[in-house]
Amino acid sequence: MTTTNEPDLEAGDGQGLLPGPLKSLIEWVVVLVVAVAVALFFRAFLLQSFWIKSGSMETTLLIRDRVMVNRLSYRFGEPERGQILVFESVDPNAAASGEQDLIKRVIGVGGDTIEGRDGEVFVNGSAIDEPYLDEGQYTNDFGPVVIEPDHLWLMGDNRIRSSDSRYFGQVPVDNVIGRAFLLYWPLGRAGTP
């Protein structure tokens, strides 16, 4: 058996490697870079947080509420009536005011005929039940409008204060960012929107 006079070095004892403070700094930088990469991945492909800037969805969602949006939900399925979506605005007025992303409820999907009449919304000739509307909410007359394939008719729950498909028209499904599935702030209102 051959022996040497060199001292044994335990893995990670720092001798002969980087000095302790520098090694610690590099470890923190690596952890930070990995955390940022994971956060960017989640934001780009899975989940994203949005805060409510207008009263168009009151009282379902209030100004300054925060919602979590599932960005993956429509890669494997189509939006359905009643769901709340965040989408890239097709409204030139909203874009000019800096509101690129809007949040509204799906009222109609491709192939549906939508009409506002006598204060109610009709889909394919039948008045729809809208339990999410506050008492006294009134929908103005519009349409009938036939929704094109791969398009949506989106409306706010606060019909009096909502600039929605009644004003800017149908929204391409490709503009959908994701489905709002969790109201998480303020904690007292947390739950499913």
Describe the structure.
It contains three helices and eleven strands. With 193 residues, it is an alpha+beta fold. The chain has a single domain (48-189), classed as Umud Fragment, subunit A. The strands form two sheets. A seven-stranded antiparallel sheet has the order 1-2-11-3-4-9-10.
List keywords for this structure.
single chain; 193 residues; alpha+beta; Umud Fragment, subunit A; 7-stranded antiparallel β-sheet; 4-stranded antiparallel β-sheet; 11 strands; 19% helix
Low-confidence stretches: 7-12
Q: Please write the CATH class name.
A: Mainly Beta
Number of domains: 1
Radius of gyration: 26 Å
At CATH's second level, what is the architecture? Ribbon
CATH superfamily grouping: Umud Fragment, subunit A
Count of strand segments: 11
Span between termini: 73 Å
Structural class: alpha+beta
Percent strand: 25-35%
Helix content: 10-25%
Strand order of the largest sheet: 1-2-11-3-4-9-10
Mean pLDDT: 84
Largest sheet: 7 strands, antiparallel
Number of helices: 3
Spell the H/E element sequence. Answer: HEEEHEEEEEEHEE
**The CATH topology:** Umud Fragment, subunit A
